[in-house]
Amino acid sequence: MLAHETIAAAEGRPRAAFLFLHGILGRGRNWRSLARSFAEERPEWLAVTVDLRAHGDSLGLAPPHTVAAAAADLGGLALDVPVRGVLGHSFGGKVALAFAEQRREAGRPLLTTWVIDSTPSARPDRRGSEAVSKVLDVLAEMPERFSDRRAFVSAATERGLARPIAQWLAMNLRSRDGGYVYGVEMDVVDAMLEDYFALDQWPVVEAGGVQLVLGGKSPVFDAADRDRAEGLAAAGTCGLHVIEDAGHWVHADAPGELSELLREQVPPAARGDRST
User: Fold this and answer.
1) Distance (Å, rounded) from C-alpha 113 to C-alpha 92?
2) What does the pLDDT read at residue 45?
3) What was the pLDDT predicted at 147?
4) From residue 218, how far is each of 131, 141, 222, 226, 242 by CA, in Å?
5) pLDDT (0 to 100) of residue 131
6) Mean pLDDT for each 10-residue chunk of the chain (276 residues)?
7) Maximum Cα–Cα distance for the chain, whole Å?
8) Residue 270's pLDDT is what?
């Protein structure tokens, strides 16, 4: 089962669960602050932050290591209320779309699906994700073990990463045999990213029920992606929200604006079946 944390309002009685999915090399707690705000503001929802496979404490899951497999993992969450909503950032955005598709095909569609700065397009050239590619290249060059967290951060910054990125990556360090190792299964990450960049999920968006949130300063959506999203939004097929002052890390750059969007536009939770 995936590692996860549930967050409910102090006096809330949740009727359904809303999943928060991180991007590649992240973990569920990256969304803890926003998830807590959402649960307090919308007490009929149970907020659930998830460690996707190969990340955080969700290690050792069996192959295949694909976006679809990462989405299928979500069906194994043991929760007291049914999952009716999902939000995913970057890699987690495509996992959210795959999960929505799986639920729809099973005859149990989600109430709402939110995709945060993750284009549904296939991108075999990895355009718009050059910064992520740089991080992966640096991690591939790093030593296997570190004496402490400062040594990891120093090694990452010496190889060209900004200190805030290096410190964020250091959140995944694990203590082992008197030192530290990087605690993400990078071989699994590499396999999942190959699938992620090859996957075209526009048909899932065109099926309805999806809200796309773009960072106005992010390179992830190119002009063609933006035009396609705007056309679908104009036709009422999907929602489209552009947070102009945000980059790719929308929840870090504009947490208040994103929180307001969720508070105002996530539909009311209603009781459904008792399964996820």
Assistant:
1) 12
2) 97
3) 95
4) 11, 27, 9, 12, 10
5) 87
6) 96 94 95 97 97 96 98 96 97 98 97 98 94 93 94 96 92 92 94 97 98 97 97 98 95 95 94 52
7) 58
8) 74
pTM of this prediction? 0.94
- In this prediction, residue 11 carries a pLDDT of 87
Instruction: Identify the pLDDT of residue 208.
Output: 96
User: According to the CATH classification, is domain 4-127+189-265 in 1.10.10.10?
Assistant: no
Which is nearest to 37 in space by CA: 92, 76, 87? 87
User: Taking Cα atoms as reference points, which of 64, 66, 104, 70 lies closest to residue 84?
Assistant: 104
Separation between Cα atoms, residue 54 and residue 3, nearest integer Å: 11
Model pLDDT, residue 272: 54
**Domain-wise residue ranges, the chain:** 4-127+189-265, 130-185
Amino acid type, 105:
E
The neighbour count for residue 259, using CB atoms within 10 Å, is 17
**Residue 23 to residue 89: CA distance in whole angstroms:** 5
41: burial class by Cβ within 10 Å (0-12, 13-18, 19+)?
A: middle
* Secondary structure in 3-state letters for the chain: CCCEEEECCCCCCCCEEEEEECCCCCCHHHHHHHHHHHHHHCCCEEEEEECCCCECCECCCCCCCCHHHHHHHHCCCCCCCCEEEEEEECHHHHHHHHHHHHHHHCCCCCCEEEEECCCCCCCCCCCCCHHHHHHHHHHHHCCCCECCHHHHHHHHHHCCCCHHHHHHHHHHEEEECCEEEECCCHHHHHHHHHHHHHCCCHHHHHCCCEEEEEECCCCCCCHHHHHHHHHHHHCCCCEEEEECCCCCCHHHHCHHHHHHHHHHHCCCCCCCCCCC
What is the identity of the amino acid at 73? Answer: D
